[in-house]
Amino acid sequence: MALLISARVSNVRALPCSALSRVRADFQRAGVKFRHLFTPGSPQLTGTHVTSPIRSAVNAAGRGAKFSTTAAALHKSTRANGSCPPGGRRGWLGKFAFGAALGVGTAAVVQALHTGLITAMALKMNLDSAEGDWKETKDFLLSLSVKDRRGYYRTSGSVPLDDIPVWTPTAGASEPSRYQRNEKLDQKISVYSGDITKLEIDAIVNAANKSLLGGGGVDGAIHRAAGPLLKKECASLHGCETGEAKITCGYGLPAKYVIHTVGPIAQGGVGEEERRALRSCYRNSLLAATENTARSVAFPCISTGIYGYPPEQAVHEALAAVREFLDAHHDKLDRVIFCVFLPTDKELYLQNLPLYFPPGELSAQKTQTHFLQRQQLGSVKFNYPNTHTQRS
């Protein structure tokens, strides 16, 4: 705790008076508790043995010295700034040193850090620069709520999960379904046409290269939107092998995490090795998401760009891998989004989704009846078996 608070305090140079006021108020409330616990002549202050839940904290002289030193440094820095009355500075800094040294009122210390000192740290946060400490920045960003994190997005026009339509199983597939109906997977699949860097969800997947240091296509777009600290964290991961997945913070992205996976190169053709590797990309990415309690994940079309994997074949590996993972872990994920850019890719997913996520008999019957009613009214001009729509 001492190191954590010292680290946070070291980031403060000149706090605004409003931030100091918030911190002062927190420790004034904590000071009331201290006054009740430690009154002049009390056993706690005279050294008389007494059974107390805070006795061990009082005896921690070394810890108190560390906090006092930190508080003194902060006091000196704030005094030089001259932004607040001297009495006010002495008041809240004294309570800070006293409370921290005693180890009492941890909740008050944490609350003050969150409302005051972390506010000052946030003012110094610069996601456009590679000079910052990516570990500290990552810890800070991951501690924020979605609402608080919005102030750090480096992109505009973010798309929240609630605005991404859910795909509903529909009848009319051109071939029999490859999997049985599983109602637990309803409301868990989406097909989204747009920019994956705009999605305000738990995790987006990056179709990366083995270096993880950025590249072209979606890889480059994600790195540009996240900012230079993403590359610094990726450098610490020492690359990634084909089919594997590694997770980082999203930094300036609306997504909390980025999961980097390396797809197979299939320019020489698709064999069993390439198929297994592509499935591993999806499976390991979902595993990384669930291990980090990410409940919404978006995938680009992995390997179908310059890596040369035919999209009409890649879609089946993607859908099969996701279906099998959800069958086993449906309780750990709320949404899996297939984020496509080309209209042809969207059509491939809409055509093949019923093969992997088939509708129930009642749902199929309702869909067929509804279609026939519309056709009789003359509102439909195409053949039903070739129709696939996205419904919310």
UniProtKB/TrEMBL annotation:
NCBIfam families given in the database record: PRK00431.1-6
Signal peptide residue numbers: none
GO cellular component, as recorded: nucleoplasm
Alphabetized Pfam families for the sequence: Macro
BP GO annotations: DNA damage response; peptidyl-glutamate ADP-deribosylation; purine nucleoside metabolic process
Residue span, Macro domain: 176-357
A GO molecular function held by the record: ADP-ribosylglutamate hydrolase activity
Native source species: Cyprinodon variegatus
Record's protein name: Mono-ADP ribosylhydrolase 1
Domain of life: Eukaryota
